[in-house]
Structure formats: structure tokens, C-alpha cells
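re: that chain from earlier
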Amino acid sequence: MAQMFYNQLGSTGLKVSALGYGSWVSFGNQMETKEAKVLMAKAREFGINFFDSAEVYANGRAEEIIGEVVKELGWRRSDLVITTKVFWGGAGPNDKGLSRKHIIEGTKGCLERLQMDYVDIMLCHRPDTSTPIEETVRAMNYIVDNGWALYWGTSEWSAQQITECWEIARRLGMMGPMVEEPEYNLLAREKVEVEFLPLYQNYGLGVATWSPLASGVLTGKYSKGVIPADSRFALDNYSNLASRSLLPDVLGRVDNLKPIARELGISLAQLGIAWCASNPNVSTVITGATKESQLVENVKALEVIQKLTPELMDRIESTILSKPKKPEVFR
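^ sequence. v structure.
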């Protein structure tokens, strides 16, 4: 099995495994504590220390499952990097968003479900245009100052919004968002490769990416639009995502990657994960797995990174045709 390696989370001193394990979709929907325990134990065996969740995942059940597993396995808390997110906390008018009220109450709810005194990273799950960013910055620093989170960050924010956060934080002498969680894969690249470029140098932003396989599209299992019964796109609440993702042109380009994977003696999934992890600006790639075999396959992707020569990367680019155009610079 490939040796896990650890990256600095942006400019922080926090070390995170190159691959993380996320609970979106699976925990509380496709598996309960018994099944999650097996997979999380295997993830730790492989060296994964980064476990990601959110208050909205399975209406909080995903956090409960993580907490139950950690407690049952008796893991040392300092060995783990636990992240979760606040934004969608319930139906009430103050149970969602990034107001000071919801950030504080939502954080307390997350910790209660996780059965933990703190999380390593608390993220703002989406930007909240109805709340002043300064209120959010102050509230996130409040939970850090109280020891409920060690760092804070954002998920699916724009570079402009993150920059505004940082400028406010610097003016107030506070901590800015140290990590952003964007979607990143061979089919979704604009933010990580273009939009966020100034943020890495200006603010030391760390990146923890999600959906490295584009919700399974990059595994090749949806060839010709066929949806396997045990896939996430077969779930009723993911039918809209399936209709947006399973486009003939996209599936055709993904199928054209298969010969490259075959020549390397690897799966298409391993190629996709290794490609994400090879980006030097990516601190950790959050993966998902509902079967032990999937987790094993994901970790083996680490062995592929060294095989991604410049020539091979060029070949991948010419096949997938998804490279974003960088803005022109006029001097």
C-alpha cells in the first residue's frame, strides 16, 4: 500500500494527510455507525487523519456518526484533524446563515453531535450575502478564541469574498480564513487553478478539495449515461445532479481517458485522485467511500503521483480538454 504523506495546510503549522475522508452523502444516508466504523478504522490504518463533515449532512447525523466512531475506537483526539461546517442548521429563521447567533449556536450544536470539545477547522459552508462579512469574521474569531475551533475557513466562496474577509481580519488584528474547500477535479478547475492564485501567496490560503471524481463521473462507471443501482446518482435526492452531470460530451471525454489509465495499470478513479493531489496548492483531497475496496483504491492513487510526468499531464489535458484559460496580463 502507498505510503501516506502529509502537507502543511496552507501557511499554518497544521499537517493534514494528502487524502482526507468525507462524510457527505454516505454517513447517515448510505451507512450508519457500524459500517462507518469499519471504513474510518481502515482510513486511519492507511494514515488518513483528515475527516470532514457539516451540520447539514444527513441533518446532523453524519457528525453524530463520526463522534460515535471516534469514541468507540478510543482514538486520541490529537491524532485527528476534524473539520465541519456551519450554514444550514435548520428551518428556523436564525438556524441558517452566518450571523453571529447561528455561528455560535451552530458550532455548539456541531460539538455536541461530535461529542468533542473542539474541531480543528470550522468552515463557513457558503457565503451569506444577508450578513455583513465583518460580523462573520468577528464571530469566527470568537469561536477560535474560545477554543471551540483551532482554525476557520470557507467552502465555495469566491476569491473576492475571501479577500474581503482577510482585509477585515487584518484591520481588526484577527485570524482570516486559513482554508477554502472548493470542488476540484478534472472537470471543475477554474477556482483552484485561476481564481485563487493570488490568495496562495497573499494570505497563505490552504485548499482542501472535494469531489475529486466529480460525484463518480470520473470513475467511468456512468459510461453512456447508465446509472448503477448502488451509485449516488441512483438516490432520489441526487437526480438533479445526475441530469446536470451525465452529459454525453463529458462522458465521451471521460471515456477517452480510459486508455491512459490502462497503460498505467490503474483505474480511472486513481488517475483522477492522483491528478488532484499532484497540484502543489492542494493540501488535502477529500475522498468518499462506502466500501472498503473503494477506500483501498483511493489510497493506492498516491502511488500514481510520481507517474504523472509533464508529458503524461499534457496528454491528459489534450484528452479531457478542461484547462481553464488564465486571464491575460497587460503591462
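The first strand starts at residue 6 and ends at 8.
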